Amino acid sequence: MVNGNPSRGIRARTLFLSDIHLGFRHARVRELIHFLREVQAESIVLVGDIVDALSMSQRPFWNDEHTQVVRTLLARRRAGVRLIYIPGNHDASLALMADMLQGQIEVHREWVHRTARGRRLLVLHGDRFDGEIPCARWLARLGDATYETVVMLSHCLTNARLALGRPYWSLSGRMKLKVGASLRYITEFEKIAASHARTQGYDGVVCGHIHRANLREIDGVLYANTGDWVESCTALIESTAGELRLVHWPEDAQPSRRLAAEPVAEPA
After folding, report:
1. For residue 110, how many other CB atoms are within 10 A of its CB?
2. Which CATH architecture does the domain made up of 11-248 adopt?
3. pLDDT tens figures, 9-43
4. Which of 102, 26, 35 has its CA nearest to residue 68?
5. Euclidean distance between CA atoms 194 and 175, whole angstroms
6. Quick check: 263 and 214 in contact, CB under 8 A?
7. Global model pTM greater than 0.85
8. C-alpha span between 224 and 121 (Å, rounded)
9. How far is residue 169's CA from residue 192's CA, in Å, rounded to a whole number?
10. Is the peptide bond before 263 cis (omega within 30 degrees of 0)?
């Protein structure tokens, strides 16, 4: 494991995070806090569903750890880190956030990111593609009762494993890739997102939304999904040299998972 010394942590040109779902009881905020302590990034791009307004409207929840995530991000902004927020379907209404953040971050519906290697990437949450593909029911929204039950069980199992010193493992992530309809949805989503970026003239797309991290080329277009902090605890980073890599936390002390040819049926 990387320790808390910033000089030995992960240094990045850009950090992409999505689907943290602050305000959702089973968000893995403790892992996220530890991860943020290890990453020194010049820019942080929040790719939607950072705050789960939908979940909080149905089942209000917030604790000190959720507040600590917000404070950590704002502290990075005050330290000179560029902070960009792209709303998702769970945090599309930014009235409360706008008041709380008091203009301390940039908010965009979509963002065009140019890597250090000159690649132009379209950054968006991904919910705009919902109407283009049949949506697996348990992926339709985080508030779905069946899906939330699975996430709750997965959350409890993960906590038990960590208490016993076992590696992080997501039951819900494994189940998602064992259900044919879910895997087909993920694959179709990836193809549509890459196709959209291609038709718009971009070299690739960065998104979140489906809670499935991946990094691969699709017909010559880069598809990058940051994953989430409910099931998989993943993030996308761009190195100072412009290389994109996925990080699975807390398994990875250093960025890993280079470009993969196809979705891999393994725990998210």
Report:
1. 11
2. 4-Layer Sandwich (3.60)
3. 899 999 999 999 999 888 999 999 999 999 999 99
4. 35
5. 25
6. yes
7. no
8. 9
9. 29
10. no
